[in-house]
TrEMBL record:
Transmembrane segments: none annotated. This is LYR motif-containing protein 5. Belongs to the complex I LYR family. It comes from the Eukaryota. It comes from Triangularia verruculosa.
Amino acid sequence: MASVNLELRQQVIAIYKQLLYLGRDYPQGYNYFRPRLHRAFMANANLTDEAEIRQAIARAQFVQKEIEALYYLKRYRTLRKRYDGA
């Protein structure tokens, strides 16, 4: 049981760090992104049920994929504007 909790804790910390890293390039800025990310994680800090924690991790991974998609779209639009206008 303790090893499962330790594993989940490590997963939560890892996804938090990954989201913080992604937040550096957030369109509204890191100072906008970080407090909201912190609040979102603190809202789920009291979860104790393993299934609920896994659902929260899955939701965080979904958010991570959405942010990455936002960055790829921004990059694509920038490149397209740069080369279509030439």
